[in-house]
Structure formats: C-alpha cells, structure tokens
Amino acid sequence: MSAHDPSAATPAELLRRRVADDPSNPLVTFYDDAAGERVELSARTFDNWVAKTANFLVDGLGAEPGTRVVLVLPPHWQTAVWLMACWSAGLVVEPVDPESVRGRDAAEPIGSSGPYILAAAQEVLDDVVGDGEAEEIVGLSLHALGGPLADCPPGVTDYAGEVRTYGDRFDPGPEVTPVAPALDVTASNVTKTTLSGAELVGAARAAAEKWELDARDRLLVHMPFTTLDGVLIALLAPLASGASVIIQRNFDKAALDRRLTVEHVTVVAGLPGPNDASGSPYRLP
User: Quick one: 34 exposed, middle or buried, by C-beta within 10 A (0-12, 13-18, 19+)?
Assistant: First the structure.
C-alpha cells in the first residue's frame, strides 16, 4: 500500500499532513467558561505537545504498542493531545467520563480491561488512586499555563512537571500500524466498540464529508470525548477536513452568541439546533 492509500492512514498521519499543509493557523481553541480561560493552539504547537506526550508515554512510562491507556479527562485541549499521542505510539485508548468515577469503590477497576496506564484530571485523582489495574497513574492539573498539580498524591506522576523535559519530535516504531486497535469507545450511544487507526480515519473522512466540512470551517463543539461522535467531531473530522475546532468546558450559554461571532463559527455540535434538539452538527446560516 502506498503512503497515501486511505487504508494505510492513521490519526497521526492526519496530524502530520495538517502540520505540513497549514502549520500556523489555529487547529484547536479551548474555552473553560468557569475559569475564564481561552487557549489557542496552531497545528504546529498541538503537534509539539503530542510529540512530547508520546515520548513521555514511551520513554517515561514504558508504554509499548498495544498498551492500554484509560483517560479520565473532561473536554479539554489536553485530552485531544493525549488521544493523538496515544495513537502516535500505537496505544489503545479508552476515554472515561470523570463524573462516572466520583465516589467509586476504590477496588473497582475504571477501565473495561486491564492492566493500563491511567491519566486523570486533578479533580478526580482522589477517586482513582486505588485502582488496582492501573500500572501507572498520571495526574493532569489542566492548568491554562501548564502549571503542576496543586496536590500530587503518592504514586501519581505529575504530567505538567514531566512532559516538558521530553523531545518535541516522536518517531513511532514499525509495530505501529493502521490496522492495530486504537480506541475503545461507545458508539451510537449504546455499545462499546474497538476501532483501529485506519477505521478511525475512515470514520473521520466520512463524517467530514457528511457534514460538508472544509478548511474554511470553524466548529464549536460542546461534547465529551467519551463517545465515537465526540472523538470524530471534536478532533478527527476537523483534522481530516482542514477545519479548526473550538472545544468548550463548563459552557456558559450566555456567552454563545458573542462566541459565535468572535470565533467566526460556521458549524455547531453538541447544542440543540434550530431543527434538531439532539446536538448533531448543524451549519449556521
């Protein structure tokens, strides 16, 4: 298969092509309305974070192709970075809603199968540190300026404190292939399914075609990464189409009209549309 055969593509290849074609324009913009934060990353900057994180996973935590990684993270630009870093290294990702682990039995595994590396937001670290299936636990402060954890429990690695020391170029080994498992996720809001990198790229291209996305589009997304639709809309379909995405957390509806204007939004997903209350993507007039 040639390098440009669609069946040979991986999510990491989508990012490489984006960096080559459009390195400087925004790829991901992030808002946390509760914290008053706005962060914008170009494709080049996003790729830099992905490479550092992939190197951290492989060189720092000993991850190998096929290693499972459970992400207990909210909608956030760093969640997108972790997804892409895992796929770059040939790891299998399972996103989990942070709200689902609050108050859990410490002996109950969070992932659907283990062992795994567990990455969790600061706000739920106390709920996950007892997970016996987690070989490594990484805590993310999700601080806008990349600050360390406010409190790092024993046995937890502080992502912000570690990741910056790793290289900003990542070269995957030959074991990382398009047909290897890449994502365990809920599809159609009902069933759990496992998709390969090639299947994710195929789904992303189909979604971009379905929603008629192109490089002129700016997507405003209010969806978690815990479903296939969320992964496609908030990350992979924008990458496949050349569009850019605005990820929202703690969304303040009062800010919507101004944000649509200021960010030049063309497509909205995760919010009720004029003719569709499901939150499916819709194009603004």
Answer: exposed
Which residues sit opposite 31 in a β-bridge? 38, 248
Reduced to 3 states (helix: H, G, I; strand: E, B; else coil), residue 41 is: strand
Q: pLDDT digit string (tens) for 13-45? A: 999 999 999 999 999 999 999 999 999 999 999
- CB count within 10 Å of CB 147 equals 12
Q: State how far the Cα of 67 lies from the Cα of 90, in Å rounded to an integer.
A: 8
Query: Cα dist. 26→211, 213, 244, 257, 261 in Å?
Result: 20, 16, 6, 21, 16
List beta partners, residue 136: 117
217: phi then psi, degrees, rounded to nearest 5:
-90, 145
Nearest to 203 by CA among 233, 223, 179: 233
* Nearby residues of 150 by Cβ (< 8 Å), 6 or more positions away: 122, 141
Tell me the sheet residues that pair with 246.
29, 220
- Per-residue pLDDT tens over the stretch 163-219: 999 999 999 988 899 999 999 997 666 677 899 999 999 999 999 999 999 999 999
